[in-house]
Amino acid sequence: MAISILCACIVMLVLLIAWGKVNTFLAFLLVSVVAALLLGMPVSSIPQAINKGLGDTLGSLVIIIVLGAMLGKLVAYSGAAQKIATVLKNTFGYKYVTWAMSLTGFIVGIPLFYNVGFVLLIPIIFSVAYNYKLPLVYVGLPMLASLSVMHGFVPPHPSPMALVMQFHADLATTFGYGVIVAIPAIIIAGPIFAGTLKKMQSNPAISMRGDQMPDAQLPGIITSIFSSLLPVLIIGGCTLITRVYGYNAAVKNISGFIGDPTIAMVLTICIATYTLGIRTGKRLTTIMSIYGESVKDIAMILLIIGSAGILKEIFVETGVSNELAALLQGFNLPPLLLAWLITAVLRLCLGSATIAGLTAAGIVYPLIAHHGANPNLMVLAVGSGSLFCSHVNDTSFWLFKEYLGLSMKQTFLSWSLMETLVSVIGLIGVLILGEIFKVTTIG
Question: Which residue windows are transmembrane per the record (predicted)?
């Protein structure tokens, strides 16, 4: 019964947004309350679940998204994004622009969380698209596909890192396997798939591109890249230091503090305010005005992201996710395929890739222990399943839709289909590696 209610609520949400044209934030709130009542949650507990879902989701994202939006706006209005776009244009040319974007997303996506990478790189996507006079989706999808793949497949991102610990996998081996699986997924779901979307037009309401400036007034390429990618350098550098000098408690604590995405973004804003603002002759009041405009741009996006977290919390607290996963335990499938399937179904229902992956891992591990499976590949099987078919209950779906100014149909045909390709290609890669390595012991 609970599974039927869950499916009905997902359908209701889609219909309210796509057919009824109800404000997305209100639709999430309404469906969340209805789901809680139908699933038997005590009335007195519903407000608490709503607050917890909203708070937990925004609590981990709001500072990063806001600071990232501020940096993105400054990168755009200072001319740094225009400078980077110009260099990309001159270096790779029109023909290979999507491959250049994929490569950028791949490199940036190794140390950087998806949401940070998204808000950091979105102004570059806008500038490259406008400079080449190409659709935003065609230019942006390859880069975002790379970011998504690295976030779902490769440690030290939160979900893969937690899965490595849960499956007792080897971190370095999992990273290596993850890169092997990631490359074909990025190529097919990125530049190749984007080629089919070259005619997809969008109408972005958010301006991430400053006025075109004469080349003489643009900041230098080193300053532009350094300021734009400073969070990558900070987080990546601190991660490397922690790996090398992790035995030193003081070094580990300091690098862990500085390398936290929130702290890294705070430091970046402080430095970029000077390098891209004050140093280029802008007044501090002008820079603060740019920051204020950026926050106004993303207000509704933050509400939508938070409301998606509410529905996820209702499903988790009522135990529907565990009931759904338990139902799938009866399927007689190979461990790697079963892990992917359970995670993919949970992802469809819950939206959160991290929650889907960790929930599936707790269910799959006891089942596969006596069968024998490569723990490193189990991490990747769950990771690829956690990216399956992102839709309206996933915060990344709304980031992509709202920033790029797409309709629901366009978002399903671009973002959702891209994520599905990534997930399926990842599964195929995992199964091939499983046949090659034939590791039959766990732990």
Answer: 30-50, 57-76, 96-129, 136-154, 174-197, 218-242, 254-277, 298-316, 336-365, 412-433
pTM of the model: 0.70
Structure tokens belonging to residue 163: 């899965």
Residue 168 region by backbone torsions, left for phi larger than 0, else alpha for psi between -120 and 50, else beta: left
Q: Where are the domains of the chain?
A: 56-299
Measured CA to CA, the distance from residue 379 to residue 14 in angstroms comes to: 31
Q: Is residue 164 within 8 Å of residue 150, measured between CB atoms? A: no
105-124 tens-digit pLDDT? 887 777 566 876 787 778 88
Contact assessment for residue 196 and residue 190, using Cβ atoms and an 8 Å cutoff: no
Instruction: Kindly tell me if the per-residue pLDDT of 428 is higher than 60.
Output: yes
Check residue 46 and give its pLDDT: 93
Across residues 9-22, what is the average pLDDT?
A: 80
Say how far residue 139 (Cα) sits from the centre of its chain: 17
**Alpha helical stretches, state H, 201-298:** 221-228, 230-245, 249-258, 261-272, 284-297
Our measurement of the distance from residue 362's CA atom to the centroid of its chain's CA atoms, rounded to an integer in Å, reads 22
Whole-angstrom distance, CA of residue 32 vs CA of residue 19: 18
pLDDT for the residue numbered 439: 47
- The answer to whether 389 touches 189, Cβ cutoff 8 Å, is no
Exposed, middle or buried by CB within 10 Å (0-12, 13-18, 19+), for 411? buried
Structure letter (DSSP) for residue 112? S
For residue 396, give the nearest of 147, 153, 186, 159 by alpha carbon. Answer: 147
For the chain, how big is the Rg over CA atoms in Å? 22
